[in-house]
Amino acid sequence: MNPLTLMANAASRSLSTMFPGFFGTAKHDHYKDFGFPTNPQFGQFYDMYRRNSLARAAVNKTILKSWQDTPFLQEYQRDGAGPQGKRKQAETRREKEIRERFSDLRVWQQLAEADRRSMVGKYAGVILRLADSKRFMDPVDTVPGGLDGLVEVIPAWEGQLTVSEWDTDERSDGYGHPKMFQFQEASVDEGKAQPRAFQIHPDRVVIWSDDGTVNCSSAIEPGLNDLMTIEKIVGAGGEGFWKNAKASPVLEIDKDAKVETMAKAMGVPVSELADKMDEQVNDWQRGFDAMLMLQGMKATALQITLPSPEHFFSIAVQSFAASFLMPVKILVGMQTGERASTEDAQEWAQTNKARRADRVIPNIMGLVRRLEHFTILPERDWFISWTDLTESSMGEKIDRVGKMAETNAKMQATGERVFTGDEMRAAVDLEPLTPAQKALLKPEAEETDDGQADDKTDPSKDDAE
């Protein structure tokens, strides 16, 4: 080969070593370079949720906002939230029974917990314990006793509820879906006194996830690299501060020092000199008033200089917050300004309102349909009534009424009234006044155009009008 070609190839290899990836070589595996897992599993997400404060805050704040109040199951849709709706329509007998039974079994709280667990793992399970005198592994036909047929609702982590058998029969209606689950309570809750373990039929399990299957992803996964980066920054900063505060001295022996003389002065043989020096340094580090006696040595402190971590920490936090569609101020609780905080709160409410509609309510309705199939609930066009997360507070509503009154006052010269009293009452969720209530609010006497008092409370005059 031409010597010039050999020299060029050698130079290219040298530059490729110095600048990897720049000269057309294979790209780096950044996950491997930075220590990020390439295929994270439930255990890593669960550990991150348990030990990382930001991961826990992101999951818990999402759940607390989405479930900030309790929903109601209604036989038909009403105007407003609550068991009776904004217009105080009567709660039906069956709705009352459902509300009381769900309250006794803490159904809504257990569903909120399943929602929380589904954010940590790829999915979570809602296990139904039924009064049908069958084992968990048996399919369900119908359950006698109506609402009393539902005995318990058990939320399960992904790590506790795994698919033990898949339906591989192409002729089956459940082809490609789980045919049997395995529940191992102790696989996550190791400290539980009596952990449960059993095979469970899919009839008795409602999968809680984005699409109702086990093939989803953890909400923590997109921000897992950021969380690991945050742990590195926090850990390195804390370790660096600790090492600086508790730095061992570096002992420099003078070139003219004699080891035998030093050992004799310390009262130990030469072979034990190093151990004696370690002991002396340890004694010196234990107390601020201790003295470090050296002979023929010079002690200097080894300082570690660390850059300020706030900037690097802030970048990772912002990236992780973006993975949850969560404003940073909501995640870490910073309040830099009233306007900014209000806008963040409004955006966060909108995000969780959409999350309710796309994820939470469909999963709740999946449970409702299952209970209908078991005849625990009658077949109805059931409706989930829930307070609007974006609804204004009472203070904001009152401010709005005040502005409506100011508008009426400004338009008084034109003789036009923009807002009626009923519209202003509706703005604060109050019913229109009845004629009797309006009569009570009228002044006892009003002056007419000729200056004479006109008694508006006289029933005969009201009739004449």
What would you say this structure looks like, in words?
- By secondary structure, this protein is an alpha+beta fold.
- The longest helix has 36 residues, at 338-373.
- It is flat and about 110 Å long.
- It contains 16 helices and 12 strands.
- α4 (53-66) packs antiparallel against α6.
- Among the domains are: 62-221 and 338-390, no CATH class; 248-301, no CATH class; 392-442, no CATH class.
- It has helices spanning 3-18, 30-34, 42-51, 53-66, 93-105, 107-120, 224-245, 259-266, 273-286, 310-323, 328-332, 338-373, 394-410, 421-426, 435-441, 459-464, and strands at 72-74, 124-130, 150-156, 161-166, 178-184, 197-200, 205-208, 249-253, 297-301, 383-385, 446-447, 453-454.
- The strands form 5 sheets. Strands 3-2-7 form a 3-stranded antiparallel beta sheet, covered by helices on one side. Strands 4-5-6 form a 3-stranded antiparallel beta sheet, with no helix packed on it. A two-stranded antiparallel sheet has the order 1-10.
- The protein is 45% helix and 12% strand.
- Residues 455-465 have low confidence and may be disordered.
> How would a textbook summarize the main sheet?
3 strands, antiparallel
**Helicity, as a percent range:** 40-55%
Strand content: 5-15%
> How does the overall form come out from the CA principal axes?
flat
SSE order in H/E notation? HHHHEHHEEEEEEHEHHEHHHEHHHEEH
- Detail the poorly predicted runs: 455-465
Overall SS class: alpha+beta
Q: Averaged pLDDT, please?
A: 82
Radius of gyration: 36 Å
Helix count equals: 16
Instruction: Give a count of the beta strands, DSSP E runs of length 2 or more.
Output: 12
Biggest sheet strand order reads 3-2-7
- How far is the N terminus from the C terminus? 117 Å
Oligomer: single chain
